[in-house]
């Protein structure tokens, strides 16, 4: 096992406890944030690009026929294949917390549509369920089992809010353990069936589950009711005959007292358990190997990596499975860092260099990898109340739109972050999208003066309607510094004066001649 330090470039605040990682064809994608997605990445899904020990994030896109997928923290997810031997797979996402701290009861199917060095497109479909639909929850697990040529999903554990009838003003948002029911979901028909098994007495959350064929093993977990981490190990076996499914549970010895652990698969039958907490105030630094063979499970302790002093002495840690035997771990950053919510990140590789070339994973994994909620768990596992900042400058603005992956390292010279004019105020560290057409680069327009140069549309005080008009029309544009010079160099156009027709004078009305009485006639009339 090897531990590698990773430097996050301008976006470490995006990776906070509660996130999930999806692995499609060796490419790792980040999903789940506390705040609502911003316009710079409305999907809330990012490609994690790790090169030369630097971690960069590129926004991903959804197809037009996709449904809306809110950012969900602490959801349950696993891969879904047509059959146990299929190479093509999708991801199933169920439950989780929305940015408003509402719990989701929806289930989504996420698949990769296309990917190149410039753009990644997903399709997300919401599944309609009927029957015994699981209540909204988080901190639970979901797995896919295969039996007799058929497949079903199994949901177990988690936490939910106290029912409305039992809530009080003081504890309105308090959470409780979900009932220890096992839910079978048939995606083909969209129906759910719940099972109550006598072996499962207490609700569990933030446990680990590993599935192979028709069997699921549930390990560890935390119970809110008892505030304990039982060293439990359950074996769920699901048989899918022509009639009704049969679900059985067996309690096995050799469990581990752990919560919020991470599981990654290193081979067809071997898994590695790392991280988590073994008590209220103690992290679990021991690693284990889990081997599934012939309907049995073996859990043995293995050599742990050389943990750094920062990891050993940190108050909390979190992470997620990256797939193919690798785990992304995070610890809180020091207070002296410029960014208050910045974290340190490590990649733990559980396989050797030669083992990385093995065939793709075939077994299903589902583990709750983030630390538990602070309001409803122990103070040591306080990991939910954190700030989330997804400003546009958090994304790798230099290599999102490249077509050639080999040229990505040189894209800083493409000129988006130049000083375009004396009044330019575009800064790569503070810029946020101004126009609706912008994603993670500022809109620019070509000034046609002399040899021509590019300027930022925002620095030129262009309205969005004017910017669209200039981009669509075949006209020359001159920036604010060259528009007057351009007018002086232009030859004034000859102005054609219109010949005005003379206006006809109005006819004068003939004034009536009034006879003024003379003095004589006046006197004559006076004395008559």
UniProtKB/TrEMBL annotation:
Coiled coil: none annotated. CDD domains: PHD_RAG2. GO terms for cellular component: DNA recombinase complex; nucleus. InterPro entries: Gal_Oxase/kelch_b-propeller, Kelch-typ_b-propeller, RAG2, RAG2_PHD, Znf_FYVE_PHD. The gene is Rag2. Gene3D superfamilies: Kelch-type beta propeller, Rag2 PHD finger. Zn(2+) binds at residues 420, 424, 447, 453, 456, 459, 479, 482. It comes from the Eukaryota. One of its GO terms (biological process) is chromatin organization. Belongs to the RAG2 family. Pfam families: RAG2, RAG2_PHD. Residues 415-492 form the Recombination activating protein 2 PHD domain. It is found in: Nucleus. One of its GO terms (molecular function) is zinc ion binding. Keywords: Chromatin regulator, DNA recombination, Metal-binding, Nucleus, Zinc, Zinc-finger. This is V(D)J recombination-activating protein 2.
């Amino acid at each position: 096992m090897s531990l590698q330090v990773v430097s996050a470039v301008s976006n470490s605040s995006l990776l906070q406890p509660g996130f999930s990682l999806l692995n499609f064809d060796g490419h790792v994608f980040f999903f789940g944030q506390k705040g609502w997605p911003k316009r710079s990445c409305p999907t809330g899904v990012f490609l994690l690009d790790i090169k030369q020990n630097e971690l960069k994030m590129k926004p991903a896109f959804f197809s037009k026929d996709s449904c809306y997928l809110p950012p969900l923290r602490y959801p349950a997810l696993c891969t879904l294949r047509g059959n146990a031997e299929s190479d093509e797979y999708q991801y199933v996402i169920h439950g989780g917390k929305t940015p408003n701290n509402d719990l989701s009861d929806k289930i989504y199917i996420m698949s990769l549509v296309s990917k190149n060095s410039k753009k990644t497109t997903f399709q997300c479909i919401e599944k309609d369920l009927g029957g015994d639909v699981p209540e909204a929850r988080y901190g639970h697990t979901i797995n896919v089992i295969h039996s007799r040529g058929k497949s079903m999903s199994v949901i177990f554990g988690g936490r939910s809010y106290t029912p409305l009838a039992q809530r009080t003003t003081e504890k309105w948002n308090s959470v409780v353990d979900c009932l220890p029911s096992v839910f079978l979901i048939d995606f083909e028909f969209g129906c759910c069936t719940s099972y109550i098994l006598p072996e499962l007495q207490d609700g569990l959350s933030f446990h680990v589950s590993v599935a192979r064929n028709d069997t699921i093993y549930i390990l560890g977990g935390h119970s809110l009711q008892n505030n304990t981490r039982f060293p439990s190990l359950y074996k769920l076996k699901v048989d899918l005959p022509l009639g009704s499914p049969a679900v059985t549970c067996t309690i096995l010895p050799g469990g581990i007292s752990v919560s919020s652990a991470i599981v990654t698969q290193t081979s067809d039958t071997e898994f590695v358990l790392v991280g988590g907490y073994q008590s209220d105030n103690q992290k679990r630094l021991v690693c284990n190997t889990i081997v599934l063979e012939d309907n049995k499970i073996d859990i043995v302790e293995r050599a742990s990596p050389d943990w750094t002093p920062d990891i050993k002495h940190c108050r909390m840690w979190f992470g997620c499975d990256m797939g193919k035997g690798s785990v992304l771990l995070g610890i809180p950053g020091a207070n002296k860092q410029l960014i208050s919510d910045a974290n340190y990140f490590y990649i733990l590789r559980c396989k050797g260099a030669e083992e990385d070339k093995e065939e793709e994973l075939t077994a299903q994994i589902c583990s709750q990898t983030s630390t538990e909620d602070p309001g409803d768990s122990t103070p040591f596992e306080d990991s939910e109340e954190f700030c989330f900042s997804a400003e546009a400058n958090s994304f790798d603005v230099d290599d999102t739109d490249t077509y050639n992956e080999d040229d990505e390292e040189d894209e800083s010279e493409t000129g988006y972050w130049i000083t375009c004019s004396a009044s330019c105020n575009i800064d790569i560290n503070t810029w946020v999208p101004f126009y609706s057409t912008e994603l993670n680069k500022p809109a620019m327009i070509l000034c046609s003066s002399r040899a021509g140069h590019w300027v930022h549309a925002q620095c030129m005080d262009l309205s969005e309607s004017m910017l669209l008009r200039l981009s669509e029309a075949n006209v020359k544009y001159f920036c604010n510094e060259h528009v007057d010079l351009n007018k002086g160099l232009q030859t004034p156009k000859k102005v054609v004066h219109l010949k005005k027709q003379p206006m006809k004078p109005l006819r004068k009305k003939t004034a009536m001649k009034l006879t003024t009485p003379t003095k004589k006639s006046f006197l004559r009339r006076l004395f008559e």
